[in-house]
Specification:
Structural class: alpha+beta
Helix content: 10-25%
Number of strands: 26
Radius of gyration: 31 Å
Number of helices: 13
Oligomer: single chain
């Protein structure tokens, strides 16, 4: 979620609580960080900084080198409405002009966020490569070095890391001492050059042991409140398709959670989430990972409301949800639904939408769709024999159609369908995502899709007819004597 975020490089050591950074007033700034060591050096002793580096820092910061921030510790104010556009501009600089930027991401960040940066004290990014070197032995740099020495965040910014090789330097020794003490307290080994042997393999530990040594209270199952870890992917005749995190899936099993549907103030169905299937492997590439199906009869669920409802609220509910609404959490609202014989394209027209499946040719199923007002981002779902196969938005321009309603074309590659084991008589349809309403067009079956394909014996696969004919023609040209 959008919120204040603190970023730390992997070579930063926290020596104390630094959560005050989450509350720091940044004003109009979107990004905060400490001035880079090169900028500090340039301000203190310009003669010791190469002219190329001087020009780069002055050019990037429009004349104020201290505005050049080090990327090792950053406050990212994602709540600021301008943050996203500036971050995308920074990314674009890396992608388009990365080779021209000496420090790549750090240069791009400082350029894109120019005028919207906040300077942190060096105690929040104590760069050891600079502060413990000979470059901080005179003048104001020496004073800065000692003022920030008791730092909250130590940044091992040099090439020599304390976990790689020993160095007779204070902060390197501090790191080794803290790690060694943690290993002793927890009873494990990090396998660094200074680590001791582990007293017991962590694999032998129980969850209670880990909680004890990490001083983390065990989370009560009853208190576990899922965040945005379950979403409705689609809803069809034979059930709902949901995407769940692993923690949420475990919670559904241990707490007997259920998926409930409400319409017109009535409970239409309540299905135990324990019936979720394993992640659907065939949906990984065409819909997304971790999609599971929860089977139930949508037609039967809608029978009590006349077979059609235009708004259904889906919730995750604990047992007894009908008597205690405190244990229900809305996860989605489906705005157009139909069931049985009522699931016809005419319902789409009543909602101000329309679409047609036009052609099946060379392995592609194509057509167009005009979305409902205010729903230009709606996706279309391809169903085969009642099962979700793929989803995609209608985005292809269609200049041959009237512009009213902004109709867009779509295409589904179904050349692979003959290999997925669907019944020959299974129906093939394109539907508006979240409904079971098919688009207009001639009824199609799996048999129809196979008529557009031929079986390539040598390749052991179903291929579009045109492609197979090209392959045969080229082979005959290369080997004219073959039958």
């Amino acid at each position: 979620p959008e919120q204040r975020t603190i970023y730390l490089d992997g070579d930063v050591l926290a020596t104390r609580d630094f959560t005050e950074l989450f509350e720091l007033d940044l004003g109009a700034a979107c990004l905060a960080g400490a001035p880079d060591s090169a900028a500090l050096r340039l301000m203190a002793n310009p003669a010791q900084v190469p002219i190329e580096q001087q020009n780069r820092l002055v050019g990037i910061t429009a004349g104020d080198p201290l505005e050049y921030l080090n990327g090792g510790v950053l406050i990212l104010d994602l709540d600021n409405p301008d943050f996203r556009s500036l971050a995308l501009a920074s990314k674009a600089l890396v992608v388009m002009q990365g080779r021209a930027l000496k420090q790549r991401d750090q240069d791009a960040m400082n350029i894109a966020f120019g005028g919207r940066k906040y300077r942190l004290d060096s105690k929040y990014n104590y760069m050891t490569q600079f502060f413990v070197s000979d470059r901080c032995l005179d003048g104001e740099l020496q004073q800065l070095k000692y003022d920030a020495a008791d730092a909250s965040l130590i940044h091992f910014s040099g090439k020599i890391k304390p976990w790689v090789s020993p160095q007779p330097e204070f902060y390197n020794g501090l790191y080794r001492r803290l790690v060694a003490e943690a290993e002793e307290r927890v009873g494990v080994s990090c396998d660094f050059y200074f680590s001791g042997p582990s007293r017991r393999s962590p694999r032998d530990w129980t969850a209670e042991r880990w909680s004890e040594v990490l001083r983390m209270p065990r989370r009560s199952r009853r208190q576990a409140e899922p965040a945005a870890d379950v979403t409705v992917v689609d809803l069809g005749d034979s059930g709902a398709y949901l995407r769940l995190s692993s923690d949420m899936y475990e919670l559904t099993l241990t707490e007997d959670l259920r998926l409930a549907g409400y319409a017109r103030g009535e409970t239409l169905f309540e299905v135990p989430l324990a019936g979720l299937t394993p992640p659907q492997a065939h949906l990984r590439e065409r819909v997304g990972p971790a999609v599971r199906k929860l089977a139930f009869d949508l037609s039967a669920a809608l029978a009590d409301c006349g077979g059609v409802t235009r708004r259904m609220e889906l919730v995750i509910a604990a047992p007894g949800v009908q008597t205690d609404k405190n244990f229900a959490r809305t996860i989605g609202v489906v705005h157009v639904l139909a069931a049985g014989s009522a699931a016809s394209p005419g319902l789409l027209a009543q909602e101000g939408a329309d679409g047609v499946v036009e052609t099946l040719s060379d392995g592609w199923l194509s057509g167009w769709y005009r979305p409902r007002a205010g729903r230009s981002g709606e996706a279309l779902s391809l169903y085969i024999d009642g099962e979700l196969v793929a989803m995609r938005p209608a985005t292809m321009p269609r200049p041959d159609l009237p512009r009213a309603g902004n109709p867009r074309g779509f295409r589904f590659n179904i050349a692979h369908l003959a290999q997925l084991g669907y019944a020959s008589g299974g129906d093939v349809s394109v539907r508006v995502s979240g409904t079971n309403i098919p688009l207009r067009g001639s009824p199609l079956t799996v048999t129809d899709t196979r008529r557009d394909l031929r079986y390539d014996v040598n390749g052991d696969a179903w291929l579009p007819t045109r492609r197979l004919r090209r392959m045969v023609r080229r082979r005959r040209q290369r080997h004219p004597k073959e039958t």
